[in-house]
Amino acid sequence: xxxxxxxxxxxxxxxxxxxxxxxxxxxxxxxxxxxxxxxxxxxxxxxxxxxxxxxxxxxxxxxxxxxxxxxxxxxxxxxxxxxxxxxxxxxxxxxxxxxxxxxxxxxxxxxxxxxxxxxxxxxxxxxxxxxxxxxxxxxxxxxxxxxxxxxxxxxxxxxxxxxxxxxxxxxxxxxxxxxxxxxxxxxxxxxxxxxxxxxxxxxxxxxxxxxxxxxxxxxxxxxxxxxxxxxxxxxxxxxxxxxxxxxxxxxxxxxxxxxxxxxxxxxxxxxxxxxxxxxxxxxxxxxxxxxxxxxxxxxxxxxxxxxxxxxxxxxxxxxxxxxxxxxxxxxxxxxxxxxxxxxxxxxxxxxxxxxxxxxxxxxxxxxxxxxxxxxxxxxxxxxxxxxxxxxxxxxxxxxxxxxxxxxxxxxxxxxxxxxxxxxxxxxxxxxxxxxxxxxxxxxxxx
Length: 446
Description:
Elements: H1 2-5, H2 8-22, E1 26-32, E2 36-42, E3 47-51, E4 57-65, H3 68-75, H4 82-89, E5 98-105, E6 127-133, E7 142-148, E8 153-154, H5 170-196, E9 200-201, E10 230-231, H6 239-256, H7 259-262, H8 275-314, H9 337-344, H10 347-363, H11 373-384, H12 394-428, E11 431-433, E12 436-437, H13 438-445
Antiparallel strand pairs: 1-2, 1-8, 3-4, 4-5, 5-6, 6-7, 9-10, 11-12
């Protein structure tokens, strides 16, 4: 509910674009009086990152150019510098001073420390936050000093090499092709323009005379040799070859951004394709993007959910947990289409395992005892994201099975009784001599 109420989904949309192009993205999530939380997506060039000894990003410096009005509304008129205050009093609200925001580990942190305040960030906060006006000295150099219980910035990276803080992504791979494509398109436009409207040459005698290039227009030339007013160059461009070269460059860019994986079915022109091949393609997609998704979970999604959860908990937005689960660790599961597709990639292995088990069971029936239908149903439903309301509870299923077994047992007893009655009737019609039938003879013998 808090995610839907805030702007976090819009921020994530912008963040994924930054991540794919630059390989590194940053999302700052802060508390908000109206929406509980509010996100701010940072763009490349306005922030700097640093990582800890565990190579996890724990430091963020960013610059913002806020208007005088925004600065005063955020920090208060008495907290800003004299220059900003004078501009505010003079009505110059659209001036944009450069503000720096620094978030870094709190050096005064003491695990279990007291909530004291002696001009420093409280010792129970893991991160400190400092706002100041760049280049400002003297009175009011700092706008605000505060702290955070958890790192408020998520900085996912597409891929990281060694101990680098900054990541690399598809945009790095496609950069050369993107520059080449721009040059190709510019050259194509120039060639077409020269072919359609070429530069002209003419004799000096018509320098100051009227000339026209309009269709049907006439330009009178003093030179009757036919070499007077004519195109300076003869441009004959093969648009087909140039278009093919541009298409090849565009295809390389699409492959760099994994468009062939995400649109593998939409862009396929095949009409006969098997379900096994579709499963194989999905598995290939997940194998290629699996490391990226795992890094996104570790550096973006898990910290984001934890940050929002803690903010809601501190503000009373979440009721106290029951005593039975207070000591347990909560595991967050994601249900997006991509996350569901990642889990669903393993369903093909389950299906192949049951097919293999059925083949072995045809020869050795005891092998079927190793197949657990209930466990398979639960695992398959979890991997494909089936809602719990669709599946019958295991206890209820056991009760249904017992009732069905009881009904089948009663039916068997009834059928056995009917068979006995039918046998007695048949025996009563058999004449064994002496005026007795088979039933009478059996009873008399008895």
